[in-house]
Amino acid sequence: MAVPARKTSKAKKRLRRAQDNLKKPEISFDESLGDYRRSHHVSLKGYYKGRKVIDKE
């Protein structure tokens, strides 16, 4: 059975494990506005759940 010659440091372990939880953002097409938006976020045009919540001036 293979045994490591030296203990792996905490920094080395964390560096290797840091990329495990990276995921791409959930982006969906909003048919009412005709553009893409992230889930549970305000769209670029200022709409959320079909209502205008931000006025861009």
From TrEMBL:
GO terms for molecular function: structural constituent of ribosome. The keyword Oxidoreductase does not apply. GO terms for biological process: translation. It holds the Pfam family Ribosomal_L32p. GO terms for cellular component: large ribosomal subunit. Keywords: Ribonucleoprotein, Ribosomal protein. Residues 7-16 have a biased composition (Basic residues). Residues 1-23 are annotated as: Disordered. Transmembrane segments: none annotated. Belongs to the bacterial ribosomal protein bL32 family. This is Large ribosomal subunit protein bL32. The gene is rpmF.
